[in-house]
Design brief:
The chain is α/β, with parallel strands linked by helices. The protein is built from 11 helices and 18 strands. α4 crosses α5.
């Protein structure tokens, strides 16, 4: 038996309870978690913005040590440190054939499986977003684990599984920020802090952080922000004022709200680029008129998982970490236990702090 955070139903509070995990079958790996990040996507699962089968053990950003492997697993062995990959590519669908593995049609099929049972009543449990990282141990498909980079502590490596891949990818793969360009990042949570660092690595000349909380300025500047704007109705005007009345070359939206997406778009120069990382609900409608689309010539694009290929990007991120260009500790504002996750969700809703990290 292991302790885990279970979502019994959409809209219900998490329950910290014991679960029964089976031994890994063919093509599976059992992992003892070292740490797991509390991501906004987990919150989106609890409130129904994103949907997966329930009851489920949530958590998708994690790292740990291999306990045992099933038949046919050869790329990892017991004792290996691994990073969980919650969106493994199938390599066969249309998106994968185009090299767009982050859009794999079958990436989340594992979330529909029954992977464990509650110890108290034997009821079925699904692995939320495939990997069920909010647990002391988990059993996952072999393609959901990647060897942890050498020289990176496992607790830090957990952040590579979502926040850092997403933020780095938004800058380097989606927006493709060039040296000397100006960047605005909307939302200074875990992903936003990773995005700020990625913009600094890209050589952006001005990096403007935007958030509703004045208290996050120090966090933002530590991550690379050169300027800080407290979100208001005049945000786009303030950003243009900081960029010679032109607007930034690139805006990255990490919130997932219609008003923020619209403001990010308005904050870019003519011909500027806006990348939307935040996950919003269906009720969040963003509107544009035909004339402004023509006149401003701006680009608006979505960004899934940083448009990243984890197998290729993890070694790149590891080199940035070892060289001191990427500081994972700057993303974490709180270390918690499993029973601290509900409070971490509350802080997220209130716009407080960066990434909360569950340490086992």
């Amino acid at each position: 038996m292991v302790r885990a955070a279970v979502l019994p139903a959409v809209g219900s509070p998490l329950e910290i309870t014991e679960i029964d995990l089976p031994e890994p079958g063919a093509g599976q790996v059992r992992v003892r978690l070292t740490a797991a990040g509390v991501c906004h996507s987990d919150l989106s699962l609890t409130n129904g913005t994103m949907r997966v089968p329930v009851p489920a053990v949530l958590g998708h950003e994690g790292a740990g040590t291999v306990v045992s492997v099933g038949e046919g697993v050869t790329h990892v062995a017991p004792g290996d440190g691994v990073v969980l990959n919650w969106a493994p590519a199938c390599g066969k669908c249309h998106a994968c054939s185009l090299g767009e593995v982050w859009l794999c049609a079958d990436a989340l099929t594992g979330a529909g499986a029954v992977y464990a049972h509650r110890s108290d009543d034997g009821s079925d449990l699904h692995p939320g977003l495939n990997v069920a990282a909010f647990a002391e141990e988990t059993v996952v498909a072999a393609n959901c684990v990647l060897r942890a980079p050498e020289g990176v502590p496992l607790a830090d490596a957990a952040l590579l599984g979502c926040a850092v891949l997403t933020g780095y990818g938004a800058v380097h793969h989606s927006a493709r920020v060039r040296e000397g360009e100006t960047v605005a990042v909307f939302g200074v949570g875990g992903v936003g802090l990773a995005t700020l660092q990625a913009a600094r690595i890209a050589g952006a000349s001005k990096i403007i952080a935007v958030d509703v909380s004045p208290a996050k300025e120090e966090l933002a500047r530590k991550a690379g922000a050169t300027d800080y704007v407290v979100a208001s109705e005049t945000t786009a005007r303030e950003i243009r004022g900081l960029t010679g009345k032109q607007g930034v070359d690139v805006a990255v939206e990490c919130v997932g709200r219609a008003v923020t997406i619209r403001t990010a778009w308005e904050s870019t120069r003519r011909g500027g680029r806006t990348t939307v990382v935040g996950i919003g609900g269906k009720d969040q409608q963003v509107t544009f008129n035909a004339l402004e689309i023509f006149h401003f010539g701006r680009t608006l694009s979505g960004c899934v998982y940083g448009n990243s290929d984890p197998a290729k990007d993890l070694p790149v991120l590891a080199e940035h970490i070892r060289a001191g260009r990427l500081d994972l500790s700057a993303l974490v504002t709180e270390h918690i236990a499993l029973d601290g996750i509900p409070a971490a969700f509350d802080n997220m809703i209130a716009g407080k702090g960066g990434r909360a990290l569950v340490v086992f």
